[in-house]
Amino acid sequence: MKYGMIPFFIPHVGCPHVCTFCNQSRITEVSGIGYLTPEYITSTIQDYVGESKSDKYWEVCFYGGSFSAINQDLQRQLLVPAYEALKEGRIDGIRCSTRPDAVSDRQLELLRSYGMKTIELGVQSMDDTVLSLAKRGHTSNDVKLAVKQLRKFGFAVGLQLLPGLLGDSWDTIIKTAIEISQLKPDFVRIYPVLVIENTELAEQYKAGIYEPLSLERALQYCAFLKTWFESHQIVVIRTGLQSTEELDAGHSLLAGPYEPAMGELVTNEQWRQSIEHCLDEHTKYFNNRIRAITISYPRNLTSKVRGLKKRNLTYFGKTYGNITFTWRENNDIDTVQCSIDGMVYVV
Fewer C-beta within 10 Å: the chain N or C terminus? Predict the structure, then answer.
């Protein structure tokens, strides 16, 4: 069944901290939640779903803030119209995003009583130094306890990561990957850090304290994380922020690896890393000089393997200039194969 999201943004409402990277009103293009009346929520659900429910799985999503940390009267005001739509069968689910330290029994009992099924936690990193530098106000242990708490109440669990924070490195990225996979979330989102105007991170960037990720390093981090999670049967449902007019125009974006096609580029990078790993493993066991490599793939993987604007062809051509590369569609196979001097590997 296709998925239909009905998003409502509640920027910074409920958050007890202001993280160094956060300026939610600029990211979501919303400056408050006064417009989120029960009537507005009901009419928005109607606008999305229409008169008769389609074959989509429709879900109301409260994003942008720490929903479970909001005043409970306000939570009820927001949840009631969504819950009514759920009971009437006009939607299929309700989810929210919140903080790891805002999932007490009392908070979760309220959400469950209004039909909430899925909760996403803003984890960002599992390295405590990185979390402290970002002024998150919670620790990696809080994340572990929060996931257990959500499981106890029967919620589906999503975890949101933010590679590229101050203090991040390959060591902290790998640590985060390992510890997140041990928690076995239902899904993960990966958002490389962007430097948004009117944030503490923007001041750190201007002062030379913080160096944002290059696009290439962001792709390397994201591709590694995505491949790692997928190898542990954890779904990655998004890499990179959703494109908005604000971000596309660059009015509030100071620096960082923003790319509307980030998801596609991350997939390209996954294939680049996999092919290069195959070359490295071959070289490790066979010391003879490689002369020719043929990369074969079915048509449905052509753009993914070759890369946007042939970026992977360009990379291997420049990096391995002494090797002849051939890139070939082959619809008799259903995966990618790498033939190195006649020895065939499945990538």
Answer: N
Q: What's the residue count for the chain?
A: 347
How many angstroms from the chain centroid is the CA of residue 340?
34
What is the helix (H) or strand (E) element at residue 160, kind and residue range? Answer: strand 156-161
pLDDT per position as a tens digit, 286-311? 877 889 999 999 999 999 999 999 99
Show me where the domains of the chain are located: 3-260, 269-346
Nearest alpha carbon to residue 329 among 303, 297, 304 = 297
61-70, 135-144, 171-180, 312-321, range with the lowest pLDDT: 61-70
Judged by average pLDDT, the poorest of 17-26, 199-208, 286-295 is 17-26
| Pair of tokens at residue 317 | 């051509």
Whole-number Å distance between alpha carbons of 338 and 243: 35
CB 218 within 8 A of CB 164: yes
Q: Write down the pTM of the prediction.
A: 0.90
CATH for the 3-260 domain, from 3.20.20.70, 1.10.357.10, 1.10.238.10, 3.40.50.1970: 3.20.20.70
CA–CA separation, 61 vs 59, rounded Å? 6
Cα Rg for the chain, rounded, in angstroms?
22
Dmax over CA atoms of the chain, in Å, equals: 71
User: Considering only CA atoms, which of 121, 132, 129 is closest in space to residue 67?
Assistant: 121
| Residue type, position 13, single letter | V
Tokens of 154: 């029967």
Mean predicted lDDT score pLDDT of the chain: 91
Of 255, 158, 179, the closest CA to residue 213 belongs to 255
Locate tokens 């962007």: which residue? 194
Residue pointed to by tokens 């790692």: 228
What is the chain's percent helix, strand, coil content, to nearest 5? Answer: 45, 20, 35
Element (H, E) at 315: helix 311-319
Measured CA to CA, the distance from residue 44 to residue 48 in angstroms comes to 6
Within 10 A of 108 (CB to CB), how many other CB atoms are there? 22
Measured CA to CA, the distance from residue 325 to residue 7 in angstroms comes to: 46
Which H helix or E strand runs over 93?
Answer: strand 93-98
